[in-house]
């Protein structure tokens, strides 16, 4: 039986939400920079990516780290860390479709780590 959204640990819900916002940001940047060239530089500013990654690392470290300490499973933390690494690597790719691809792949992998962390908290892993 599927667990309800309300029973999932708060930090994992926040981290998954942040991952989703990151994915939306990346796709929106690629799609709208051409159409919104007058303000497109704001969406593609390096600071947006760097701050987003810093927030993802802090939230991920806290949620996945406390989860590993609580339930003892390292797989969610390992998968989440892989996702964070892909996101960090995407910062070194020029803006465009490739950057968006690697970032979305990274946030999806990170979200999977948080989902596994939630399942481990609930004893479903």
Automatic annotation (TrEMBL):
Keywords, alphabetical: Membrane, Transmembrane, Transmembrane helix
One CC-aspect GO term: membrane
Record field: transmembrane: 14-36, 42-63, 75-94
Pfam families for this protein: MerC
GO molecular function, one term: mercury ion transmembrane transporter activity
Protein name, entry field: MerC mercury resistance protein
Organism: Sphingobium subterraneum
